[in-house]
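Hey team,

Filing this mostly as a record. A colleague (T.K.) asked me to run one chain through the structure pipeline before their review meeting, and I want the input and output archived in the tracker in case anyone asks later how it was produced. No errors, nothing strange. Just documentation.

Input sequence:
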Amino acid sequence: MKYNYIFIILVAIVVDYGLINFIENIAKTRISNEETHIISQARTHFNDQVNYRIWNAQYDGVYVKPKPNQEPNPYLINNTLKSEDNQTLIKINPDWMTSQLSELAKTGDYTFRIISFAPLNPSNFPNNFEKEALKFMVEKSKTEFFTFNEKEKSFKYMGALITNESCMQCHAEQGYKVGDIRGGISILIDLEEYFANKNDILKKKMMIEILIVIVSIIIIFLIFRVLKHTVELELKVEERTKELRKLSQLDSLTGINNRGHFMDISEKYFNIALRNKTQIHILSIDIDNFKNINDTFGHQAGDKVIVSFAKTVNELLRNSDLFGRVGGEEFSILLQNTSKDGAISFAERIRVSTEEMNILYEDKVIKVTVSIGLATLNDESNISELLKNSDVALYCAKNEGRNQVKIFN
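Output structure:
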């Protein structure tokens, strides 16, 4: 039974593990999809800025009409130009264009800025994250670095700016070579909503996992209850079957073996005795003048006589002896592990003990005697022959005056 419980628990653990793992994978997939979208969004912003810079660099910077009070970029060579109509135009190079675009982006859901290891413009010095990103990209030869910052509820992305020929005009004197990473575009995306969704997904995942465990415990409990109830029913059925089997083997009045069961067991003992060449003895016993008892005192009195006699004999029997009621007032006893003299002595004790019984019925004392026939295994081929011989001896005892023991010769 305990192995059934262990098996059920193991199955529940495997099923729970599979379900929880499935839920975990769904949650991870949803979070991963959102993160992939955010990374893709940052890469798109970065590529847009790179494309703008390439466009600008193709013209070696562009000259535009300045906004009111806007000064030329002091870090640029040839930072102004006079037009034919005598207007002063200022030069916008890729870096300054990126800086100006970053100011416009501050009103949106993300911000970005250009940074460099050794910027010409002090405002392009990297912060701690940007220093870490630049160091990582240079040491690992990577072109991007990013992190999800739950504390600040933000996504920080850095894309590398690779030095090309068009960059050398302004940055050659800083020691850069074509192909070097000289800086990057840092992008910051607000992730307030992302982390709220992520926490919601994780909470729901945990709730579902707890629910799975609770449901499993309830199901296991119910299965155990059913199993326990089934076992209890099986035990009751088994006990009842034993009782019915026992009832089918016992005489309902006296509780000793009935004729059928006595014959079955006697047959086994008989075969064992033949095989082992040992002796067994059969006593056939009949209560004398039993019909007169029924006629004089009634059948209930007769039943009491039979019960009293069976009780008296049971007190004389050994564990190895077999006792049965084979007829109305007829009984048989099979004796093992005793001599013929011992069997005769035992039969005589039964006769005397019966004669000494005082059976009280409705203020009347009923006295009874028994006649006994004894047969010992000799040349008989089956138990029926041995019983028949003991019956012959019994009839002799009855015919010769009753209340005596006769031996079959």
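Quick notes for T.K.: The longest strand covers residues 181-190. The chain has a mean pLDDT of 89.
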